Amino acid sequence: MENYKITKEQILAIEKVGGADVSLYLKETFPEAFKTELEVGKWYKMKGDTHFLCNFNGNIGNNVNSYGFNLVGEWMDNSMYFHNSDTYVEATPEEVESALINEAKKRGYKEGVTITWKNKPKLIYTLGDDEFDYLISKNVLVFGNYGIFDGEQWAQILPKEKTVIPMAKALKIIAKKMKVSPENIEIQF
């Protein structure tokens, strides 16, 4: 019997045009051709899972690190690793954008919030009345003109400063909300 060489691309092309029997035969005969080769900087999701979504961050030692959303949809910073690359498929830009926007909203990014970056504490911005936008080529999520996620790190939301107002003004505000006169309010400590 004569041996022939066939490339991975040829196997995958045959699998696309063949029926279920051809597909099964090829996957059993050439299992290595069907393994997902993870690329640094790309987002992947676990086959059949709606929560897991992460960005392959490269090899560190014997582990393959990433950041993103775990199996229950919680954000994880550089604490996950890919254990079997053929259980992952590349996520669509829409899936990534949707997940990042939902996470940004959950974290509290909205109009009036003041942000800064941990590595650039002197850059302080107050978010305006804008919309979220995911810049696919840079892996950056922005809110209006300001980046809030830079492909691995989230901007830090700064706490609002307390506003101090005189007691008389506070009584007027409370009275107005309660629809009574300020003189009819008694404050006990």
**Radius of gyration over all CA atoms, rounded:** 26 Å
Number of strands: 11
Class by alpha and beta content: alpha+beta
State the order of secondary-structure elements, H for helix, E for strand. HHEEEEEHEEEEEEH
Key terms for this structure?
single chain, 189 residues, alpha+beta, 3 domains, five-stranded antiparallel sheet, three-stranded antiparallel sheet, 4 helices, 25% helix, elongated
Quick recap:
The chain is of the alpha+beta class and 189 residues long. Helix content is 25%, strand content 29%.
Could you characterize the architecture of this molecule?
The chain is of the alpha+beta class and 189 residues long. It has three domains: 1-34, no CATH class; 39-91, no CATH class; 106-189, no CATH class. The protein is 25% helix and 29% strand. It has a five-stranded antiparallel β-sheet. Helix 1 packs antiparallel against helix 2 (20-29). The model has no long low-confidence stretch (mean pLDDT 80).
